[in-house]
Design goal:
66% helix, globular, binds Phenylacetyl coenzyme A, 330 residues
Length: 330
């Protein structure tokens, strides 16, 4: 099974009659648009769903620095290097806000990190694809950050206060990231024939993996119904995927690039693009650990965790020493 941890699908969304008094009061607060704060009562599945989603989101931000970090030393100009470095630092910062926000739910950062490292928790499928050339860095900013914003702007209104507030700053930064990516791929698309070819190749490889970022089709989405009832999620996976396609196709046209989809067509009746679905078999395979870079990504994160053990030990020893000195002085 590609989903784990919380079995909302088997239990379904609880009806009003099946809820306890506390659950009913909680749902009424959600329905009234109130934010839930860390010390408020919440159903255990609400807490677990948030830890799952926020933890996976944090892990994605951190693992997401790997394909771009790969290009910091090879960016074509000093300006592009400085911009990319700043972007990668922002992404790491997003991971840290999100770990802090997740900690308000009663789980430690170490615990959820260990769940990533031993494969119990996921990170976004997109980061299991390699960044092969400089145009890929443009495509990641344009498409991957573009998809991330499409998903994260509604999350600013998510029902859990700390998550919602973290998303406000993250969205501002992601929108800079999207623009820097678009600018980088625009420079390639307006360059020599070889550079234009690189830009098209990057779009060809990143288009469908970007569509997969929104999650499986609604019919296969295990958590959407309950997460939407709790306003953890505001839109379904398919709604956001469609919005992303509608926003991105004119951007590709402006660049003179071709979206790799023969069925892509504006539909006057729906006022949206018709488009081909990604290969969902490939998505489930990547999520299960069989994508092109899954093994390398987890090996890199495990190495970073192991290499950093002496820093964590040193910090803890220092904290214990300070606490002991404080008690001795009292
Ligand atoms: N990859 O029932 P649903 C970024 C899993 S941040 C891997 O539909 P849900 C910034 C899902 O976890 C990108 N797994 O799940 C950046 C569940 O498995 P589980 C990350 C996926 O949660 C840019 C199972 O499939 N953004 O890019 C994926 O209701 C550039 C069933 O799926 C967020 O995390 C996937 N794509 O909806 C950084 C946003 N999709 O947990 C660096 C917050 C689904 O039961 C460079 N998250 N699965 O084992 C969300 O909005 C939701 O969690 C969804 C999935 C929409 C991703």
């Amino acid at each position: 099974m590609y989903a784990q941890m919380i079995k909302t699908a088997s239990t379904g969304v609880k009806s009003d009659e099946d809820m306890s008094d506390l659950e009913r009061q909680f749902q009424a607060r959600i329905d009234a648009g109130e934010k839930i704060e860390p010390k408020d009562w919440m159903p255990e599945d609400y807490r677990a769903t948030l830890i799952r989603q926020m933890g996976q989101h944090a892990h994605s931000e951190i693992v997401g620095t790997l394909p771009e970090g790969n290009w910091v030393t090879r960016a074509p100009t000093l300006e592009r290097k400085a911009i990319l470095l700043a972007k990668v630092q922002d992404e790491a910062g997003h991971g840290l806000y999100l770990y802090c926000a997740a900690e308000t739910l009663g789980v430690t950062r170490d615990e959820i990190t260990e769940m990533l490292l031993d494969g119990r928790m996921k990170y976004s499928s997109i980061f299991n694809y390699p960044s092969l050339n400089w145009a890929d860095i443009g495509a990641i900013g344009w498409l991957v950050d573009g998809a991330a914003i499409m998903n994260q702007v509604p999350l600013q209104r998510t029902s859990y206060g700390p998550y919602s507030r973290a998303m406000v700053r993250i969205c501002k930064e992601e929108s800079f990231h999207q623009r820097q990516g678009y600018d980088a791929i625009r420079a390639c698309a307006e360059g020599t024939d070889a550079q234009k070819k690189m830009a098209q190749d990057a779009l060809n490889r990143f288009w469908y993996p970007s569509l997969m970022m929104f999650g499986p089709p609604d019919s296969d989405s295990v958590h959407s119904a309950q997460s939407m009832a709790w306003k953890i999620k505001i839109n379904t996976n398919d709604e956001l995927r469609q919005k992303f396609v509608d926003q991105t196709v004119p951007q590709a046209e402006y660049l003179g690039l071709t979206v790799p989809d023969e069925n892509l067509k504006w539909n006057d009746e729906t006022g949206q693009y018709d488009f081909s679905q990604p290969d969902w078999g490939e998505f489930f395979d990547v999520v299960k650990g069989n994508g092109p870079c899954n093994v390398d990504r987890l090996a890199d994160r495990n190495k970073a965790w192991d290499d950093g053990a002496w820093v964590r030990d040193g910090m803890m020893a220092h904290a214990r020493k300070k606490a002991a000195a404080k008690i001795a002085a009292e």
